[in-house]
């Protein structure tokens, strides 16, 4: 029985298509939970969300404000999603007033920040008056439900692939979602384990917002999510969404993913047009080679392929980067949003023969791919 999606309006003022608007972007591109009916960002009002992100119209309008959205939409959406992911993770006074207004209109509130709306007295009172619900995606499980590492990950006998990156907000989740969909379309049962708030909002059945966990339980929660997906779904492959970067001085997330999931292979996402770390303008970006060395030095796995973010680059520049990486590093390289997942599927089949046997070869040829000559 198909799940009925709730309609949702996403708030992303002045950030849609930018780094701190990654939650909104992820939901506009893909959601199994919500039907996105609009985005609020006055700097892009009147435009199409799909065209702003990927130059492909998806008929999701961008509105100047909440009033305009509710005037133009045929009915009030079921949910109001706070779609920004700022480093300080706090809402402003104007944003607070908009959330209260959305509640008054009867919209449930979906929040991905570390600031929990369901523990805010004013929000609690308004939610009760309006008969709506508040859902804090990053709220960690109760202590009794948390897991420490057990070593039971060793019983997972299907490939586990981690999609790591060289920085935050560089496309790891997008690549994981695209690859997961492609594999399933080819007859491979692929399960994606979420590790962040956006992919959980999108509808991932397994995973946890790991940056909200007490450090003692991070590795165990990742291990448990992989084990649960393996035991409950009997998949052919498990993809684990990455967070931040192993080399990033501000975050430990990727190390927890490497330890907890013990991946059989790694796909590395990189934004070659980015000069400085996301939200850290004084920290220069690492290069792909240094990140690969670091990942392979602290894990028992190897980097199998490189995927790219095309931010700040033209199509011609991306093609040059692809050719350069494949020549120098001898690793298949692609931008999945532009060129598809064919190279990734091929390298997975090469490394894991059981997967290759299950791929519907006729369908493989239909996956978009652009020659890199």
Automatic annotation (TrEMBL):
Domain named D-glutamate N-acetyltransferase-like C-terminal: which ranges? 147-345
Q: Which Pfam families match?
A: DUF1611, DUF1611_N
Where would one find the signal peptide in this protein?
none
InterPro entries per record: DgcN-like, DgcN-like_C, DgcN-like_N, P-loop_NTPase
Q: Which residues form the D-glutamate N-acetyltransferase-like N-terminal domain?
A: 43-140
Name the chain's protein.
DUF1611 domain-containing protein
């Amino acid at each position: 029985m198909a799940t009925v999606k709730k309609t949702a309006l996403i708030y992303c003022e002045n950030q849609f298509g930018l780094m701190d608007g990654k939650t909104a972007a992820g939901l506009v591109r893909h959601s199994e939970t919500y039907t996105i009916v609009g985005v609020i960002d006055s700097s892009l009002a009147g435009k199409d969300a799909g065209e702003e992100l990927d130059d492909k119209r998806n008929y999701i309008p961008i509105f100047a404000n909440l009033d305009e959205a509710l005037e133009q939409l045929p009915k009030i959406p079921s949910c109001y999603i706070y779609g920004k992911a700022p480093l300080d993770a706090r809402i402003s006074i104007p944003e607070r007033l908009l959330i209260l207004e959305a509640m008054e209109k009867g919209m449930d509130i979906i929040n991905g920040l570390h600031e929990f709306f369901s523990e805010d007295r004013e929000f609690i009172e308004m939610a009760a008056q309006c008969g709506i619900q508040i859902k804090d995606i990053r709220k960690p499980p109760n202590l009794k439900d948390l897991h420490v590492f057990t070593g039971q990950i060793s019983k997972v006998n299907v490939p586990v692939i981690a999609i790591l990156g060289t920085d935050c907000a560089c496309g790891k989740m997008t690549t994981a979602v695209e690859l997961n969909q492609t594999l399933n379309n080819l007859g491979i049962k692929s399960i994606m384990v979420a590790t962040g708030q956006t992919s959980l909002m999108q509808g991932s059945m397994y995973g946890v917002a790991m940056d909200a966990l007490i450090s003692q339980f991070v590795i165990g929660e990742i291990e448990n999510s992989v084990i649960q997906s393996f035991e409950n779904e009997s998949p052919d492959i498990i993809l684990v969404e990455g967070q931040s970067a192993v080399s990033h001085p501000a975050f430990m997330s990727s190390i927890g993913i490497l330890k907890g999931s013990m991946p059989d292979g790694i796909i590395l996402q990189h934004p070659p047009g980015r000069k400085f770390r996301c939200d850290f303008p004084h920290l220069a970006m690492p290069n792909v080679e240094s990140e690969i060395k670091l990942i392979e030095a602290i894990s028992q796995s190897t980097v199998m392929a490189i995927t790219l973010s095309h931010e700040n680059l033209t199509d011609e520049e991306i093609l040059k980067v692809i050719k350069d990486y494949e020549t120098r590093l001898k690793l298949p390289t692609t931008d999945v949003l532009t060129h598809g997942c064919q190279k990734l599927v091929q390298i997975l089949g090469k490394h894991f023969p059981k997967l290759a046997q299950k791929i519907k070869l006729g369908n493989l040829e239909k996956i978009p791919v652009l020659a890199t000559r």
